[in-house]
Amino acid sequence: MTDLELQQLRREKWRLDGKAIRTIENARIFLEEVGYCLMYPVRPAVTLPTFIGAFVGADDRLPTQQHSYSDPRAAEATELMVRLLRERSAYEANLVDENNAFLVAASVFPYFYALVGERNPKLAPRAGSRSLYSSLACDAFELIQREGPISKVKLQEALGGSVSLPALDKALGELLARLRITRVDYTANQGSFWDLLYRWAPEAVKEGVGLSVPEALSALLSKYLDCVVAAEQSELEAFFGKFVARSRVKEAVNALLAARELSFVHVGSRSMVQMTPAQATPSLTATKTVAAAPTRSSYK
């Protein structure tokens, strides 16, 4: 495979070849096919599709999150994305920041929850020297638990006028990083609306709690490679190292290579990892099916 062929395959999968997603049905199909994506491109670049790119159908002059306010395409794409959140066809995890959504398909989300979510989601977070949560994040959680779904504007008002928006964003980011909360709606005058994830999506959370980290990581690695076609092992470790220790990613990749579910492919001068082609190992047909669209029972 050449680098040009790899890029062309990605463009087709990521809907950058003119086949724009403009309906809710096509948006659902796209997200289920890729598994997860960023809302906007970032710098430095992350090897992932973007929702705005699929909405536009190209990757030429796409807005970043910082410049989305001045691009009418961003407003239309955001409206479509929020519809996916409202109907629970998509969920969010924290990859870059709270303002650049990292969207995860409903069928894939329990695996992400297994990696980063709390095993006892109903237990309220507590602040402390060893806690992952600040006092403001704990206060925000309790308020969302009591009043949610609640907009960020009302959340700021209820927490007190001295709480700045950057401080509140940081606190919400802490809660989102551990999937304690989720964005459930958005309006232009009130901004994002937040609710507790276990209350908004109890079945997805319950399934995620029941999955082990190794099986969830294996499923997500397979889905990622199905989405990006091929990647260097260092790229896999860098991406999934945002959620779990890199050593665990390396172990999972090596286990999948040993099981021949993954294999190496030369792309130009680089050695990359791919899903093992079905024709090379017919017994892996089922695995290929799961990688293309994992279901909530496939890895149990």
Would you give an account of this structure?
The chain is α+β, with helices and mostly antiparallel strands and 300 residues long. 48% of the residues lie in helices and 15% in strands. It has 14 helices and 8 strands. The protein has helices at residues 3-13, 24-34, 51-56, 72-86, 109-116, 135-147, 152-159, 165-177, 197-200, 202-210, 213-228, 233-240, 246-258, 285-292, and strands spanning 36-38, 90-97, 100-105, 150-151, 181-187, 191-196, 262-267, 270-275. Strands 1-3-2 form a 3-stranded antiparallel β-sheet. A 3-stranded antiparallel β-sheet has the order 4-6-5. The longest helix has 16 residues, at 213-228.
What is the CA-CA span between the terminal residues? Answer: 34 Å
Quantity of strands, as a count: 8
Uncertain spans, ≥5 residues at pLDDT below 50? 280-293, 295-300
Strand order of the biggest β-sheet: 1-3-2
Shape: globular
Q: C-alpha Rg, in Å?
A: 19 Å
Assign the structural class, choosing from mainly alpha, mainly beta, alpha/beta, alpha+beta, or little secondary structure: alpha+beta
Order of helix and strand elements from N to C terminus: HHEHHEEHHEHHEEHHHHHEEH
Mean pLDDT: 89
How much of the sequence lies in strands comes to: 5-15%
How many alpha or pi helices?
Answer: 14
Most strands sheet: 3 strands, antiparallel
Q: Which percent range fits the helix content?
A: 40-55%
